[in-house]
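Researcher: Structure prediction, please.
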Amino acid sequence: MAGCGKFIWEKQSSMLLEVKELHTYYGQSHILQGISLKVDEGEIVALLGPNGMGKTTTLRSVMALTPAKSGHVLFKGEDITRLHPFEIARKGIGYVPEDRGIFKSLTVIQNLRIPHLNKGRRENWERDLEKVYALFPILKERSQQMAGSLSGGEQQMLTTARGMIAGDHLILLDEPTEGLAPNIVQDLIDSLQAIKKQNFTILLVEQSVNTALEIADRCYILEKGRIKAQGTIDEIRKNPEILHQYLGVPDEK
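Model: Predicted structure follows.
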């Protein structure tokens, strides 16, 4: 490992998601300029970098919400690049957007039921519900409450739980701690670590470097639509040049 070049990650395990040379545009703006990354089963992988660098677009391109112009997205070895978003969701990928995207005029339990019905199946509903209630017991208490009346932290729990139901294996989380009080952030961190223990894999966009470094196994650092560095959390922590140049962490001098 040297300088700000890409780190070599030597761990061998089962790859769940692979993004290969992805190029995505908004109009004439070339947002993703050849993004490549891998996520293995059971990992929490963070996408880090300043705002406007392509982190959210990466998640949206995986889900085909902002379709890539070129490149490939592989899920469990299958090329899903040209599928529709609902087809990708049915493959077992849950997407939790930054704006949470809950249906405020529906109850908590109705919000949780939507992704289950979207899968095109009705079995295992009680199992899925029991799983999310175990992680977020407040949602069980609020099950008949309108989602729009929940606090910000409770809404984030709801949308994360909905992502769990939608994604049998992989959850894409966009800025889950944005706007939350510090004590709620810690609760959410604990919940994400518990979700991982239930054999979920998470690809996380997070603006808070400290939060990402606390919960992720590896991270990719984006700048202007390109991967500038990658590595395990320990590698990132031990590289002050990376921390300072790309993540804005002050030099310790």
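Model: The radius of gyration is 18 Å.
Researcher: Thanks, that helps.
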